[in-house]
């Protein structure tokens, strides 16, 4: 075996090392998922320490939901890994590059138009990914999420949404990629600096415009009506000098009954977005016996599923304020800025290493490119394959850091005198989203970017302690 490895060419060593590492990561993930599924199967009764915060019915629902999700994740992951391996073994990447060249040649463009060929390759690759991933997405939405009461979409709405997402993605991805490739080609010895600055600018622009111009293409955003909740949110933001300008409610209930909240914006222009499913007083899922809205161009009621009746969901106003206190804690403690700095430091490092490696012809030859070294293919090979061990290590470190940030944000909300409300809000959100509160310690350590529910409640100190 060692003799065989020694006799392999450099290109083959690179290729088989990439495949070996990819399957090693998959088997590690599968092992972790197996450990967690054992927890789902064996923990059939509410543990004693959870008896005060979770009833038997909710516990069983969450156990079955997470078990179904874990089983689905195993099979979809196996398919994805097998598909990726076959693409590499059968030369799918150079084949698609050749097809892309043939298509642009029909348009009168030759091999010298590498950027045009790269964009065609990217379009075909994302089309392939969208079509192969569609059955899995449909099964997840209309079997698993439907079975456990979360899906609120019809098939027509889902497919229209998928097409819209694909089109919007291409409208952003193709121009940005073409400019990045152009910068790399004309940037000279220091192209990696210009490429990094360009991606930094693009990321800042996208964060700025996403909620105002992109997200409204998919969901309806309305200003939070005047009233006690809005006044309390504005007062809380002012108390910590958070430059809040607007508060929106997003109609997340037309897709799913999962709940969420976030803030966005730079400098003195911060906005808060609340999902209607988070708000007990606004969630359509809590309104029984009310007529459905008339369908119109601005309303997708005609494509939305009938809303379930008598399902209480969301948090009361004081609990919503506690959740926002946690989110604002991330801002006040600098977590958002720290994450941006870490992300950009990593991006700069990756572009620098890319500049070092892009001239190595054996990297291209390992993946079937013996006569050419297209820049887009180099980006794919180096960022996706060669950097994969580094990416796995970085992902784990960021998961550990995220858990630390979550505890700090909880402590910040507690310092604002909202411990008891956050305590009850976490329990409600865990119940609404059917989160399972028991986890295998290795699975939790590797995957959980948020601490387990019980650990967060213990850190808050109890339901009555402020």
UniProtKB/TrEMBL annotation:
Lineage top rank: taxon: Eukaryota
UniProt keyword list: Endoplasmic reticulum, Hydrolase, Membrane, Metal-binding, Metalloprotease, Protease, Transmembrane, Transmembrane helix, Zinc
Keyword Ribosomal protein on entry: no
Membrane protein topology class: Multi-pass membrane protein
Domain CAAX prenyl protease 1 N-terminal: 36-220
Region (Disordered): 285-313
Co-factor binding comment: Binds 1 zinc ion per subunit.
Cofactor: Zn(2+)
Subcellular location: Endoplasmic reticulum membrane
UniProt domain Peptidase M48: residue ranges: 223-461
Family: Belongs to the peptidase M48A family.
UniProt name for this protein: CAAX prenyl protease
UniProt organism field: Lepisosteus oculatus (Spotted gar)
């Amino acid at each position: 075996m060692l003799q065989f490895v020694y006799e392999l060419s450099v290109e083959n060593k690179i290729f088989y090392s990439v495949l070996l590492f990819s399957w090693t990561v998959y088997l590690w993930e599968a092992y972790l998922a197996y450990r967690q599924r054992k927890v789902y199967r064996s923990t059939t009764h509410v543990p004693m320490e959870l008896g005060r915060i979770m009833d038997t019915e909710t516990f069983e629902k969450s156990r079955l939901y997470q078990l179904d999700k874990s089983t689905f994740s195993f099979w979809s992951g196996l398919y994805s890994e097998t598909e990726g391996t076959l693409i590499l073994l059968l030369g799918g990447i150079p084949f698609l590059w050749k097809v892309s060249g043939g298509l642009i040649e029909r348009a009168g463009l030759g091999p010298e138009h590498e950027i045009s060929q790269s964009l065609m390759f990217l379009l075909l690759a994302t089309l392939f990914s969208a079509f192969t991933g569609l059955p899995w997405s449909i099964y997840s939405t209309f079997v698993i999420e439907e079975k456990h009461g979360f899906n609120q979409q019809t098939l027509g709405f889902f497919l229209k949404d998928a097409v819209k997402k694909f089109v919007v993605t291409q409208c952003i991805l193709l121009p940005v990629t073409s400019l990045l490739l152009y910068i790399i080609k004309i940037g000279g010895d220091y192209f990696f600096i210009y490429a990094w600055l360009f991606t930094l600018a693009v990321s800042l622009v996208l964060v700025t415009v996403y909620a105002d111009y992109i997200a409204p293409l998919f969901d309806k955003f309305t200003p939070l009506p005047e009233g006690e909740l809005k006044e309390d949110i504005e007062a809380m933001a002012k108390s910590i000098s958070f430059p809040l300008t607007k508060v929106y409610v997003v109609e997340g209930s037309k897709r799913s009954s999962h709940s969420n909240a976030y803030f966005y914006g730079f400098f003195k222009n911060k906005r808060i977005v609340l999902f209607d499913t988070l708000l007990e007083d606004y969630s359509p899922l809590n309104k029984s016996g009310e007529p459905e809205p008339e369908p119109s161009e601005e309303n997708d009621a005609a494509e939305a599923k009938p809303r379930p009746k008598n399902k209480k969901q969301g948090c009361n106003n004081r609990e919503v304020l506690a959740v926002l206190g946690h989110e604002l804690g991330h801002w006040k403690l600098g977590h958002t800025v720290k994450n941006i700095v870490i992300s950009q430091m990593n991006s700069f490092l990756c572009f620098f290493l890319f500049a070092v490696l892009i001239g190595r012809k054996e990297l291209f030859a390992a993946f079937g490119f013996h006569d050419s070294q297209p820049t887009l293919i180099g980006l794919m090979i180096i960022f996706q394959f060669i950097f994969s061990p580094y990416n796995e290590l970085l992902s784990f470190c960021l998961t550990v850091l995220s858990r630390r940030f979550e505890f700090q944000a909880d402590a910040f909300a507690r310092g604002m005198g909202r411990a008891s409300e956050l305590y009850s809000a976490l329990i409600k959100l865990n119940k609404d989203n059917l989160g399972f509160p028991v986890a295998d310690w290795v699975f939790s350590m590797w995957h959980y970017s948020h601490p387990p529910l019980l650990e967060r409640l213990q850190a808050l100190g109890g339901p009555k302690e402020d």
